[in-house]
Amino acid sequence: MISRDLEVLNRAGIHARPASEIAKMASSFKSDIFFEKESMRINAKSIMGVITLGATYRSKIHCTCSGPDEEEAMAALSALFERRFEQ
Amino acid sequence: MKEFTVLDLLDLDLKEHNHLQLTCMAGRSGLSRPIKSAKIARPGLALAGFFVSFSGDSIQLIGRSEQSYIDMLEERGEYENIEKLFGYNVPCFIFIGDYMPSEHFIELAEKKATALLTTPLESSDFSRRLYSQLDEVFAATMTIHGVLVEVYGIGVLITGDSGVGKSETALELIERGHRLISDDTVKLKNISDAFLIGSGENPMLAHHMEIRGLGIINLTNLFGVGAIREKKQVELSVFLETWDQTKQYDRIGDTLTDTFLGITVPKIVIPVRPGRNVPILIETAARNERLKKLGYYSSREFDQNVLKWLESEAARRMYFSSDDIEGETGIDQ
Prior knowledge:
Number of domains of chain A: 1
CATH class of chain A: Alpha Beta
CATH topology of chain A: Histidine-containing Protein, Chain: A
Low-confidence stretches of chain A: none
Largest sheet of chain B: 9 strands, mixed
Number of helices of chain A: 3
CATH topology of the largest domain in chain B: Rossmann fold
Number of helices of chain B: 11
Largest interface: A-B, 16 and 18 residues
Structural class of chain A: alpha+beta
Number of strands of chain A: 4
Radius of gyration of chain B: 30 Å
Structural class of chain B: alpha/beta
CATH superfamily of the largest domain in chain B: P-loop containing nucleotide triphosphate hydrolases
Strand content of chain B: 25-35%
Low-confidence stretches of chain B: none
Oligomer: heterodimer
CATH class of the largest domain in chain B: Alpha Beta
Largest sheet of chain A: 4 strands, antiparallel
Number of strands of chain B: 16
Helix content of chain B: 25-40%
Distance between the termini of chain B: 82 Å
Distance between the termini of chain A: 30 Å
């Protein structure tokens, strides 16, 4: 199991479209991927869950991956956050 | 957890029978003060000068007897205990009825930045309402990945791996006239170690659903206000999993439980495979749960009937000789 803090770098925060990118990316891995923010802990493979986090610009999300492809999943997700969700 | 302030207490969005009817009389600068305890204190003894085990971090409720005592103290010019009370930095004072505190009391409140609130309710009624609200505010919470639906009045929490069909199952249940509380993230609260209450994490996003292939849909608009609910006690946990050939599933029932925040609820595991009608299984499970609440356990009752039948067969057997049984004839022979 590995975990890392990811920072939201796009101005608009995580709204529907970034959430769908995240969920799509997360679903392509076998590992269980969870996002934590404040007291919330949600499954990164679900769009509604990711939106519910209410992550605004510059907020930090604690990401935890565990499973056979955890390293790849974490790398892909951090890259996605750094690319500002392809926007 | 975010701090719960006096302003949050005033802002609580409550319906008629648990509305606190609070208004702020003075000390507005104290509205940002956090409430850290779920207790309510009646400061009668403190006003009389006895401060041993005084709970200074609780909301101070000033009922009619305390009010007349304060009046008496102020008439006599004995302000010491009142000032000492303010010295504890209590979250706020709540006055019952139409009592108006003296100018001196209000001055103190402004100086010490302590909010003075008032409610027209009677103190017993008000305490009951406030306690039940504070219980909810200070309850242990957790969020869980799943769907909460109300089926025949039973709160059913559906969990399972991503993509197993939780949302589709919920959608079919709503189509059949049941209600959605929350899809995807369910916030669970332990209310006084007795009830597990589930609700949506965010009222803005609740009652929306993401269905693969359809995108995000608004349930309230599609199915009407009758298809949704704000919160519901969780009374049954349903775990959906893809059918595993090698696994043995429960064939009799009544054995599994799930524990959330220390509260145990009955659990069923439903193996999912194409063509299996999961919503109707959940409906049946909910009906069965209602029967259990009425004291009727289908599987136990069935087992008892089987035992009774076996016993009576054994008893009958004693009256027959072995020949009679082979010949399947009556007692007369």
